[in-house]
Amino acid sequence: KAAVFSGILRCVNIIIPSLFFMMVISGILIRSMILQRISPVFDKFSRFVFGMDGTVFIIFLLSMFAGYPVGASLITEHYRNGRISAKQAEIYLCVCYGAGPAFIYGVVSGSLWGSRAGNLVILSNVIANIFSALILRVIFSKKLKPSASSGSKARVRLDCADFMTSISSASESLFSLSAMIITFSVI
Questions:
Q1: Which helix (DSSP H) or strand (DSSP E) does residue 183 occupy?
Q2: Pairwise CA distance, residues 57 & 42, whole Å
Q3: DSSP for residue 50
Q4: Which of 59, 81, 110, 145 has its CA at 20 to 30 Å from residue 48's CA atom?
Q5: Contact present, 13 and 181 (Cβ < 8 Å)
Q6: 3 state SS of 114
Q7: Is residue 60 within 8 Å of residue 96, measured between CB atoms?
Q8: Of 76, 65, 81, 96, which is closest to residue 33 (Cα–Cα)?
Q9: Are 39 and 58 in contact (CB under 8 A)?
């Protein structure tokens, strides 16, 4: 009973507040085609430095600051839409998964907020992701050939159905994640 209660509190106080909003926003960004529309701005830089197209680069940035399920879910959605290959998705998932600042501060209960140690933890997380992306680019350069950008041709559409789908998808993901946390708390 105590373990279940502890797991529920962890989910309600840490997991859901740090992830729900970003999961909804990221769902809206991908479903509305906003990411594809703004990706050409980053194409040249991201192709040269990381070997990824502008959209994947934006997902990479979002995953560093939003945290684990956001980056993984966006890469999966990008793959399902046929914009990257299965091998590219596997490789990108290696760098689009880490803990975001909200999660890190939530886990340490905000005691490091604004402190030098807290900033160092966030900075080390971001630097580790950047180095990982650079190393993967070198190792898998032939498999990470980005396709031609079609971002500027993407038509932005924002409707209630996409908004509702993003909310229900985020809720479903967080429910599954919470169920696993509670289960492992009991174990």
A1: helix 160-186
A2: 7
A3: T
A4: 81
A5: no
A6: coil
A7: yes
A8: 81
A9: yes
Burial 106-141 (b: 16+ CB within 10 A, else e): beeeeebeeeeebeebbeebbeebeeebeebbeebe
Contact indicator for 60, 50 with CB cutoff of 8 Å: yes
Per-residue pLDDT tens over the stretch 21-61? 888 888 888 788 888 888 889 989 998 899 888 888 998 88
Distance between CA 65 and CA 68 in Å, rounded? 9
| pLDDT, tens digit (0-9, with 9 covering 90-100), for 101-132 | 666 766 665 566 667 777 787 788 888 888 98
Closest alpha carbon to 50 in 149, 152, 151, 145: 145
DSSP state of 152: G
DSSP state for residue 108 in the 8-state scheme: T
Q: In terms of C-beta density within 10 A (0-12 exposed, 13-18 middle, 19 or more buried), how is residue 68 classed?
A: middle
Measured distance CA(137)–CA(145) in Å, rounded: 10
Locate the DSSP E strands across 59-112.
none
Show the tokens assigned to 4: 């279940």
* Winning range, highest mean pLDDT, from 13-17, 33-37, 85-89, 142-146: 85-89
- pTM across the whole model: 0.76
